[in-house]
Model the fold of this input.
Amino acid sequence: MRLSATSAAIFLASGLTGGAAFVPSSLNGPRSAATSLNVASAPPKVWSPSSWKDAVAKQMPIYDSQEDVDKAIAKLDKVAPLVFAGEVRSLHEKLARVSQGQGFVLMGGDCAESFKEFHVNHVRDTFQLIMQMSLIMTFGSAMPVVKIGRMAGQFAKPRSAPDETIDGVTLPSYRGDNINKEVFTPEARRNDPNLMVDAYYQSAQTLNILRAFSTGGFADISRLQAWNLDFVETTPEGSRYRELAAKVDESLRFMKAIGIDTSSPEFTTVDFYVAHECLLLPYEQALTRQDSTTGKWYDCSAHMVWVGERTRDLDSAHLEFCRGVGNPLGVKISDKCTPDELLSTINTMNPQNIPGKISIIVRMGAEKLRKNLPELIRAVQREGKAVVWISDPVHGNTRVTKSGYKTRDFDNVRAELTAFFDVHDEMGSHPGGMHLEMTGEDVTECTGGESGVNQDTLKERYITACDPRLNGSQALELSFLIADRMQKRR
Done:
């Protein structure tokens, strides 16, 4: 028996894959080239996986030995792809529907993955948190939620300065575990190309774990009560989640009673994807493969990659690399981005205006977002560009406390997310997603929210290798906010 669209919307966590059921009616008939859902169209012929080398490459590490770099890249050239073209196309199709108002994107995970913190339990807890959040948002929005982890490749980080000074000693900045090491010593801060190989193998392990959790029974919707993280269970958000789970349980019992098989894959597995910032271009190039069925090139390090605010210049090597791969792409923008810049970026990365190809990830802070985002949306609407608008409410709200801890205030994060929805309501556009730096661990890195973290308790469990992350309670609080806002838009 096939679920109706309304029933299916309730059961996000089941990973329903009937993509055609969510195609807007405007896309069901004949389509022009400008709105085609053909996600296999070819990039410009002048592009090649190495053509980025002729462009301006910012935020790139300088290595001591080119010979060592060549050896590391030679190893990566021979390894298996981390993801496959069919998986990438599956994500692209889902994002195409989101761009037409038929879904919501949840992207979340660590600021920067690390080698020392890698553990199956850490991967599990973040996956579990994303499952909880997506269930909450689907129940409130009556829309499918596309689940994407900042995982299995989110190592490299752009830095505001090439060096840092501690106690009068100046060394190169820590750029992520796939480039150098966090320990403040000359040897650790040396850029080591072999770390790219180590990052590949950890990413492969992470993806194996994620595939096991998403298809091996852990994601079975009948286990939705078990998804509640231990440290979240006693919080107000944990209580709200239990109430929601009870409603879904009741619906499941009703569906079983009328003969629906809730043990089918639609209810026991989910589609889960991974993404990271496209920053370390030698690594990305080494994992770029040509699909044997379509002839297209795909960056097989992740299902989706994005270009950051610091590397999105129109003449940048990062845009040059990304414009030629078949993956869905993202670009992060701050209040510095003008309408003309945004349109030029969109035209560079998605010249054929294919829905789902490009996501605009907005990171501005609440006040600047209310001032600047409307004109950006207006320009995109005027030119008929198909994009997914995603809010990144954390990066524009980072500060340093008097005691030296980098943190984010939850009230400011919530204010920016609220502003994002307010602006889209005013503009008649679709708020398509949320992008968070968060973890399933019980950390105290961001202040505020129902979790009660404050400046005095930051030091208790502050373990991030880079930027502060929301903990599970804070992330769930944002999920309920989104569910409430999306419910009002039905």
In short: The two ends are 26 Å apart (CA to CA). Residues 283 and 310 are 19 Å apart (CA to CA).
